[in-house]
Design goal:
The protein is an alpha/beta fold and 181 residues long. Helix content is 52%, strand content 12%.
Length: 181
């Protein structure tokens, strides 16, 4: 598989709670790649949590940090990168994402809500109606996520290993050269 990818990075996109970090780490191990999480890089660089950054500087400042980090990592090869759920909102980020293979981990709203119901680390869900907010974010971002090279649909009860295997099985379908007769 690594020879088929030829060092091309994998960028995992999708909503918060879909498992990009967990699945990304597994994919990196299978590929012999390095795993990076853009949110983790931002918290290491700033010494602040994502919640603190949103509270102190606002979403726009956070999105700029996210773009700056993405610009840096896309220059490297042999990476699996878990991105923040909103990375697709800025057009400039797509130019960075297109340096690699973009994989959309897509989960139904109900599954996301179940996973995130008790999570207090998500600033965008600190809302009077977190389920409505999640639905609104998903509706806003789905047309953007759908521009990915691969869409992997998650089902209730699937393990991160099963999801990583689905990604690995799907990669050749977008990398094989088309043979016309």
């Amino acid at each position: 598989m690594s020879s088929l990818l030829r060092g091309v990075n994998l960028y995992l996109i999708g909503m918060m709670g879909v498992g990009k970090s967990t699945v990304g780490d597994l994919l990196a191990k299978q590929l012999g790649y390095t795993f990076l999480d853009t949110d983790n890089i931002i918290t290491q660089l700033t010494g602040k949590t994502i919640n603190q950054l949103f509270a102190e500087s606002g979403e726009a400042a956070f999105r700029q940090l996210e773009s700056d980090v993405l610009a840096q990592v896309c220059a490297r090869k042999e990476l699996v990168i878990a991105t923040g759920g909103g990375i697709v909102l800025r057009r400039e980020n797509w130019s960075y994402l297109h340096h690699g293979l973009i994989v959309w981990l897509d989960a139904p709203l109900e599954l996301l809500y179940t996973r995130l119901a008790e999570d207090t680390t998500r600033p965008l869900l600190q809302d009077a109606d977190p389920q409505g907010k999640l639905r609104s974010l998903l509706e806003q971002r789905t047309p953007l996520y759908s521009q990915a090279d691969l869409r992997i649909t998650l089902r209730e009860g699937e393990t991160p290993e099963e999801i990583a295997n689905k990604v690995m099985e799907a990669i050749p379908s977008v990398l094989k050269p088309q043979v016309s007769r």
